[in-house]
Amino acid sequence: MQRGGTPTAFDRLLATRLAAGAVEALAEDDTGVVIGSCGGRVVRLPLQEIVGKRKPLDPKLMRLADVLAA
To answer: What is the domain range of residue 53?
Structure first.
């Protein structure tokens, strides 16, 4: 996911944690995976499990975004 605006401390920490997860996967020769964040943990997901799938957006978050944008 790509976000706009000036990076926050959270953004920088998340980027650092994901990069560290990617380096660990490479060091372990774990290829064909994507590094992500789930429940505050860095996880590896096999590409075959996620390619072509859609993750639905939470309607509550969409309503919240509308409220905050107004």
So the answer is: 9-69
Domains held by the chain: number = 1
pLDDT tens digits, residue range 14-52? 999 999 999 999 999 999 999 999 999 999 999 998 888
Does 19 fall in a domain? Answer: yes
Rounding to the nearest 10 degrees, give the CA dihedral for residues 7, 9, 13, 18: -30
Domain contains 61 = yes
Cβ atoms of 17 and 31 closer than 8 Å: no
Q: For residue 50, what pLDDT is reported? A: 87
d(CA 13, CA 21) in angstroms, rounded, equals 12
